[in-house]
C-alpha cells in the first residue's frame, strides 16, 4: 500500500501482511492477516515512529522515499523492540546511519542483543519531549504493554497517541486504515479481542496502569502498530482494552465456554447432552472442539466468560491432549478464576479427571462437579449429563 497522510505531514507508512501464517510463530493469522503500522512525521526534523517486520522491505522503504530522503532522517522512535516492529532496523541503519534512535532505557540492551546496535542511541525519559519543528513528541513509559522496554509516543499538535501494541489488533487492512471509513468494524473488534488475549492479556495490570497514566491527555487519534487507526472515536478502543484488562480480576460475564475433545464420539455425544442442559437455563454457551480449533480462538471465549465446562476422554491414563493443550495455554496466559466442571468417557481405568485436577489447581480455578462414564453413554447416562449441565449453569448463574 502507498503511504497515507493521516494528518498534515503525518503519514502511515505500514505494511499489510496477508501471507504470514503464524503471528509470533504461534497464533494463526492466515485468514485474518495483520498490519505493521509505522508512521512518518515530515517536519523541520523528520521522524519515523515504529518500524515494521523485515518483510516487504522494498515496499516499506519506497513509502518513505515517496515522502522524504531517508538518508536525512533525523529520528527513529522505537517504542518497542519486538521484531514485528523493529525488523527493518538494521536496513534502516545502513540507509540512514546518522539517524538517532529514541528509545526507553530498557530498550538499549535489547538493541544491542537483537541487532548489535549501540551507536546513535538516545534514551528518552518518562514525560520528556522532543521538538521536530511544528510537531512535538512526548514519551510515556508503558512497561509491559507488551515488553518491559515498551513506551508510547504522543504527538502534541494533532493529539495523536502512537500506542504501539497497546490498542492494537489482528486483521489486515481492506484498502482502508481508519475506524470511521471501516465497513467491517465487527471483524476488527473481534480480532482486537483475539490479539488482546493472545498477546497482551497476561499484562492486563500494566495495561490498566498505562490507561491511567494517559488519562487527561487530549487524545484525538489512537495510532497503534497493528490494526485500525481510531480517529473518529479513539475512546472506543481505549474502553474496550480497559474492559478486557478489567476481566483479569476474574469478574467477567456470566457464560460457559465448553471445551471438549472426543476420540470416537462418545464424549461428543455427552457434550451435546451437557450443552442442552446448559442452554435450557438461557445461559450463553460457546462450544469448541479443542482438536479442531486453534487455541488462539478459544482463549478469547475463556477470557470473557466466568465458567468453563471441560469434556475430554481419558487418553493413555491422562487428559485428552488437545484439551490439555488449551489448559496449558490458559495457564501461560493467566486466564483468571473460573468455575469449572468435567465430563468424559474412559475405556477401562480412567485418569483424565485426576490429570485435569492438576491443571485446575495450577490455574486456581474452582472444580465444582464431574461426570465420568465408561465407553458409550446410554440414554439414562445422557439424561444425567443434561441434568449435570443444568446444575452447572445454575451454579454459574448462582441460583443454587
Ligand atoms: Fe506487535 Fe509486542 O509486538
Question: What's this entry about, in short?
Answer:
The protein has helices at 57-65, 83-86, 89-95, 105-115, 185-200, 204-214, 234-246, 266-279, 295-304, 321-332, 352-363, 379-396; strands at 4-7, 10-12, 15-17, 22-23, 27-28, 34-36, 39-42, 46-49, 75-77, 100-103, 121-123, 129-131, 136-141, 151-155, 160-164, 221-224, 253-260, 285-289, 305-311, 314-315, 318-319, 339-346, 366-374. By secondary structure, it is an alpha/beta fold.
Mind sketching the topology for me?
Layout: E1 4-7, E2 10-12, E3 15-17, E4 22-23, E5 27-28, E6 34-36, E7 39-42, E8 46-49, H1 57-65, E9 75-77, H2 83-86, H3 89-95, E10 100-103, H4 105-115, E11 121-123, E12 129-131, E13 136-141, E14 151-155, E15 160-164, H5 185-200, H6 204-214, E16 221-224, H7 234-246, E17 253-260, H8 266-279, E18 285-289, H9 295-304, E19 305-311, E20 314-315, E21 318-319, H10 321-332, E22 339-346, H11 352-363, E23 366-374, H12 379-396
Parallel strand pairs: 8-9, 9-10, 10-11, 15-16, 17-18, 17-19, 19-22, 22-23
Antiparallel strand pairs: 1-2, 2-7, 3-6, 4-5, 7-8, 12-13, 13-14, 14-15, 20-21
Q: How would you describe this protein?
A:
- The chain folds into 2 domains: 245 residues, Ribonuclease Z/Hydroxyacylglutathione hydrolase-like (Metallo-beta-lactamase, Chain A), CATH 3.60.15; 139 residues, Rossmann fold (3-Layer(aba) Sandwich), CATH 3.40.50.
- With 400 residues, the chain is α/β, with parallel strands linked by helices.
- It is 34% helix and 25% strand.
- It starts with a strand and ends with a helix.
- Helix 5 packs across helix 7, helix 6 packs antiparallel against helix 7 and helix 10 runs parallel beside helix 11.
- The protein contains 12 helices and 23 strands.
- The chain is elongated and about 80 Å long.
- The chain has a 7-stranded mixed β-sheet. The chain has a 5-stranded mixed β-sheet with strand order 12-13-14-15-16, with helices on one face.
- The site of MU-OXO-diiron has 8 residues, from helix 2.
